[in-house]
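Incident log, entry 3
Record: Response regulator (221 residues)
Problem: checksum mismatch between cached and fresh output.
Input:
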Amino acid sequence: MTVRVVIVDDQALVRAGFRMVLDSQPDLEVVGEAIDGADALRVLARTEADVVVMDIRMPTMDGVEATRRLCAERPTGGPRVLVLTTFDTEADAFAALQAGASGFLLKNVPPEELLAAIRVVAQGDSVVAPSITRRLLDRFAGQLGAAPSGDPRLAQLTEREREVLLLVAQGLSNAEIAARVHVAEATVKTHVGRILAKLQLRDRVQAVVLAYESGLVTPGG
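Fresh output:
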C-alpha cells in the first residue's frame, strides 16, 4: 500500500528536502504541498492523503490551529498529522497533540526516522516515545487549558482499563505495562484498544492528554 503524504512548511527548501527523501521510497508518495496551515486545509479539501507532515511555526495559520481544524472536520477517517518541532517549541508540540496530532518529531531528525515515523502514523499508531511523552506532560500539562475537572467518559472504563490508562499516561509502553500488571502484551494492546474506543480517542497520545486534562494523573505525579 502506498502512503499518500502532504508536506506543510513555509520554507520551500524544507519542503523540497522532505519531498526528495519521501519520493525515494517506493511505498511513500507526496501528493501535495502547502506553505502554511490555511493553505494546508485548502490542499487537503481537494487531495486524498494518509499523513500530513506539519510544521508548527508558520505565518497566516500555524500548525497547531491547522491540526485542530483538520481533526475537528474529520474526527474519523481523515489524514493523521505528524507535527515537527524544535527543542524550544515543546509547548507547541504538546498543544498540537491536544489538537489531535498523532505525534511529533524534531526537525533535525535523521531521514530514516522520519520515514519510519510516517509509516507508523499511517498504520494508526503514535510516534511519540514514552520518555518524550513524560517530559512534555510533566512540563506543560498544568499550564495548558483549564484546571482539571474530571471527565465523565472515564466512568465507562473497567477497573483494569483505568489501571492501564494510568500506566499509559505515565509513558509506559505496552511491554512495560504487561510486565507491571502481569499479563501478556497482546492483552494490554486489547485493553488500550478498548480504552480508545470507549473514550472516542484517535490514539494513545490522545489518551495520555485526556488523563492529564481530566486530573486522573497530575504533572510530576
